Amino acid sequence: MNSAAISSPPPGIACDVLVVGGGINGAGIARDLSGRGLKVVLCERDDLAAHTSSSSTKLIHGGLRYLEYYEFGLVRKALQEREVLLRSAPHLMWPLRFVMPHAPAMRPAWMIRAGLFLYDHLARREWLPGSGSIDLRTHAAGAPLKAEYTHGFMYSDGWVDDARLVTLCAVDAAERGATVRTRTACTSATRHGTGWQATLRDAAGGEQQVSARALVNAAGPWAEQLLKRTVHNADGQPPRERRSLRLVRGSHLVVPRLFDHPHAYIFQANDGRIVFAIPYERDFTLIGTTDVEVPDPDSAETCSEAEAAYLCAEVNRYFRTELRPEQTVWRYAGVRPLLEDHAGDAKAATRDYKLELDRDGAPLLTVWGGKITTFRKLAEQAADQLCAALGEARPAWTHDAFLPGGDLSGWIGPAQRPDTDFARFVQTVQQRYPWLPPDLAQRLARAYGSRIDRVLQTTDGQGAARLQDLGAEIAPGLFEAELRYLRDTEWAASADDVLWRRSKLGLHLLADHPASSQSHAVSDWFASR
Length: 529
What we know:
The chain is an alpha/beta fold. The chain has 3 domains: about 5-50 and about 165-245 and about 350-400, FAD/NAD(P)-binding domain, CATH 3.50.50; about 95-160 and about 245-340, D-Amino Acid Oxidase, subunit A, domain 2 (D-Amino Acid Oxidase, Chain A, domain 2); about 410-525, Alpha-glycerophosphate oxidase, cap domain (Helicase, Ruva Protein, domain 3), CATH 1.10.8. About 30% of the residues lie in helices and about 25% in strands. The chain has 16 helices and 21 strands. Strand 18 (about 355-360) and strand 19 (about 365-370) form a beta hairpin.
């Protein structure tokens, strides 16, 4: 997976399945199919997770509020996946306790207790603690809150580095035989009898032909556009659409840390929505999200001033210290491709997904909707349908599989539980590499898990024995050894790929350093290679 191979593809490829879209669903489907032995090509017009999949609230959760809309099936499915995912990558995902201050004027206490009871029991929990009541007058979570909030509730969900999750799915797919093409758009795909003929175009304008037995449309917010503009039957007409999307922007603010404890907050907003305040990247608090309907995905990936004011106003109803939009360190927004279910309000629209398999000729599978927590199950179901359509008897395999870097047993022995396993892993990393600064050791352990030794190498592939062996420090805490790994193994090709998706170093640079000069240094490093 070197950069030369990515930028200079062979003139043509024959494969079983062409997957269009390098977000979480596309990468997950490519991973699952590759693990079943099918030949897969995954193409993404930008970087992996460049859009919606890096702009989430970064939670692995059942979706407590979906119970109000009687989405019991979705919540149960997501809760079942929660511990599966946490086990698969304990370096990338970890448990998080959520505090809900009780606001008597909002949902009554009995309703919240009933919802939490269902949340605890809709799916089996092996090690995540259940819900309970807390006294905010004595609990640490009450200290940042206004005095009027005296009681609350606490429950468990999980946290995920969303963009790295996508990248690791793509890495796993590639290591199982998939061809991954980033910065490569599918410009046409035409059905011919029992197969598809597609044209891929890279950023330099080079074209490549792909012949595939099946096509997957995992373009997220662009799924409808792909069907209308790019995919055609043999007669030149687009396939018939049976479903449609509802495009809803979710915006987030990242602000200086608002509290010192490790728990997150879930606040009830005045409009019936909920707003999260979550510990983020050690020094910050992540606040989100909104639900703003947008007409198209291409011009809507920016948090508006109105959304920033809304988020600040809602958290100010709870926190003692007033937050203003101008205190924001970073804002981000993503367009969620929600399955159109004709709910009146965007906040009530389903977060479930549908897989539409068109077998009018060569198989075409379109992914409508979805959320990060259910990506593995979605991919498994998609792979089941495609294997059946192609006449391939290939069993599912991802339920008990680790993502790259997730198997820590070679460092710490048999797994016990993901949260404590990772703490033991970090201790082992620090013992093995005592010359690594503690903050750097923690960050690299989080990012790469058991593959950290592949990052800590010299230019000739030998294990590093001192900090200087990692090469020049291109930006604070970012050495050449890591850049080489990201370029050669994770398709990183720009400063944004590294500073904002493969890591969040860009956020720390915004707060602590002249960010533009550091970004230019990383860009210059790529340009010189």
